[in-house]
Amino acid sequence: MITVAAVTSASRVQFDFTIENLFPENDPEVDAYLEFREEFEREDDLISLAYDSGDPFSYENLVKTRELTKAFSQVEGISEVTSLINVELFEPGTDIVMLPVYESIPISVDSLQFLKDRVLDSSLLNDNLVSSNGQIAAFLLELEDSANNHPDREAIMNKIGTITNDSDWSWYEAGIPVLRTRYVQYMLGDFVRFFIPVTIVLLVVLFALFRTIRGTLLPILAVLMADFWVMGIMGAMGFTINIVTYIIPTLVLIVGVADSIHILVKFNQELNYGRDKRVAVKLTIQKIGAAILLTSLTTAVGFLALLSTNITMIREFGGMVAVGVILAFLVSITFIPAMLMILKTPQKSSFEKMTKGFRHRLLEKIVVINNSHYKVIVVSSLFMVALFIFYAMKVDQHSSLMEDLTKGNQLYDDMTFMEKRMGSVLPFEVIVSVRDNGQLVEGGIKNPKVLKAIETLQKKLDSIPEIGKILSVIDYLSEMNMAFHEGDKAFRTIPANRELVAQYMFLHEEEFETLTNFDYSGTRLAGRIEDIDSRRAEEIIDEVMLWCQENLEENLDVKLTGTTLMALRINQYLVKNLVVSFLIAFGVIFISMGFLFRSIKLASLSMLPNFIPLLLMASVMGFFHIKLRPTTAMTFAIAFGIAVDDTIHYLVRFRQELFANGGKFREANELTLLTTGKAIISTSIILSAGFLIMVTSNFLPSRDFGFLSAVTMLGALLGDLFLLPAMLTLVRPKIPKVHNESNDL
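-> structure tokens emitted (745 positions)
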């Protein structure tokens, strides 16, 4: 009944891919960006659709451009289309009017060449609507504000694709709307692609481990119920599937199955000892119920640590996965024992095969190695730690936006082409405000002296290699001034007096409304920038701001902003917050282990087999040049919370065996490995297999997350099977109520 109600509630979960949900709360840089968007036109609503037609200025291609312009204009959600066929420039003359370059398409070669030269000579169009060599041109498609959301953008992109597919030109997409739409499509593709394959892989691995239908289906049914419950809670609370929470169902599926495996393994062991079904179920719950609860809590802590961030999406993600882990525990501890009581007792041969199969033989060999070489294991681990630290120091935390994609991906290839042939493609904004004693000066940017200062700033920006085309009031005023003086290029300069500046702005107010605020106290320099990483972005910001301090008067306030810088800033912000989340998870779990075992030494020992796999993960990142980005930073806290589960199961069983064997460490280690070791191997294989499915993603963050999580799980498995028993044998920590004597071994 609960599951049916949850499914009904889950059907109300909506998709929401608004990028603003990733913005940190109460952040001055975010506030400045949002203020910029309120004062000026959005810079994240422009699709640049470049095309290679051979010669975009030929008569035939201009006719085709006219047809395509009309077709794009009819797409619902596109407010304006700019192309070679309708773009306007200032006509020479004192009237300073703007007319289309191609009022009609000429047939003569000379006329076509004249208009081509005029387009290429315009600073407003060069590397904006057409490449500097005239070989590549573009359509600029501006979206309506109401259509700048994922469903509408996707519909628009599909209609654009239908139109371009009917043309034999080569097409290339760029712009923030394209980037956002394709990213969301990749994420949704992963949402569908992962869940079913992960389920199939889990079924296959479970069958290989248990060789029974019940051992295969019961864990899957339990975790699917937990998944439905989580989605139901999300629907009831009004949470959405977004660019972070889309992976919740897959994670709950992978992580939640471990509890069921431990229950089934222990149940089969009790049956193998000759217990009847009822007693076996009772003893299973008594002996490992508390351990499963604690492991679920520690896993949940790994996710709950994400609540320390001040980003809504991350908090929702951490909270809901933590809820999913606890629900998986509740379902496993109630549903599976109930089903075991209902189902017939399995044949003795089936659980004997499981308890004496390959895993048992493997563990017997591990016991021999641990007993004979425990000192070598500890010393070797220390050398490996040094090696891991060496490569971990090579991890680079500075990533770029396009590094989430790889060569061969259409979006990556299109953006790379545009960057090479049309200049930089990602938006870059500089805001200049005129102030007097801290107050904005109305009409301040109409002052020719201020405009000269802005012109020098624009030249400084042009000198930075990564910054591409910059458009500002300087370009429009210079073009207007040249037109006013009958096209004399000697007058392609800022007007000499304030009155003329004011007149130009008044005559073509619509051209300036996207570049100035309402009272002309501030202006924007709208530019584009290459796909730089966060380190280079910080260097550019520092370089520009230092130049401004040294070369501009104090009354000019300069801010660098825009979608690109905001996205890079958010990435760095997330990395720092997620590192803090990991430290919180580490601290909470360490304290919990101390309370559980009433021993700081034992708690410290329990951390080492799980801390070393994290070093292994960091070293793998350094060796394979995997950047420390939000997804990889998140992996540390999550993987640690999951990996520590098997250590808890081992130590709980170890303490039980130590009590039962009079404090003999060797016997306790052997019996723990031969019993709980089977479940540890099973859960580690399940988790690793589930995470490795994510490596098939086309989206690099998903691939990195899956690969690094699997590496950590396997590293934790080796730590629990070799390093932890070796340290217990070597250190022999005092455990309450157990007498520790030197001759116990």
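The two ends are 54 Å apart (CA to CA).
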